Amino acid sequence: NAGVTQTPKFQVLKTGQSMTLQCAQDMNHNSMYWYRQDPGMGLRLIYYSASEGTTDKGEVPNGYNVSRLNKREFSLRLESAAPSQTSVYFCASSENRGGYQPQHFGDGTRLSIL
Amino acid sequence: AQRVTQPEKLLSVFKGAPVELKCNYSYSGSPELFWYVQYSRQRLQLLLRHISRESIKGFTADLNKGETSFHLKKPFAQEEDSAMYYCALRRNTDKLIFGTGTRLQVFP
Known about the structure:
Mean pLDDT of chain B: 91
Oligomer: heterodimer
Strand content of chain A: over 45%
Mean pLDDT of chain A: 92
Helix content of chain B: under 10%
Number of helices of chain B: 0
Low-confidence stretches of chain A: none
Order of helices and strands of chain B: EEEEEEEEEEE
Distance between the termini of chain B: 41 Å
Number of helices of chain A: 0
Number of strands of chain B: 11
Number of strands of chain A: 11
Structural class of chain B: mainly beta
């Protein structure tokens, strides 16, 4: 049972390049999330999807787009990468069947923009 | 504004010493608070939540609404407790606001 799988694990881009980070979960969860983790900033929510076909902006959505392709997959796209987007990106998922359900995280994608 | 503050970036203790990781929050409603932990080479995972009032791996955390705090405590630290700890506040739906994290180092 893989849980939440993120690809790639590492990536280096040049400024202006585009890139899609992939995330898939096998737990049949409805909710999925994309975070970025920066030193001294903790985890900040980029985008959130409560269910297939719906997405909402989080705290730091600028420069990103997302697609909830189906219940399993939630991708994050950088259309024109900037050095400020150098970060570790985490995908997470959770059930949303009432009350709080823990978020399950992937291993992260370490992204460097030169 | 909703905010979670973890004032310490790094906390170093010796094995067997008590540990307290501080967390303060600001939230206008009735808060739900959590501690998440990331051990070396492992995924970020839920450690405990205030509503459960449970002890996990010897850790406890009490919600103090008067002081708007949710400090994580353990009476006797173990080397395997070394990890990154994040305090988090639940917003509407399932969105969380995370603090900046505290790295706990437990020396033998």
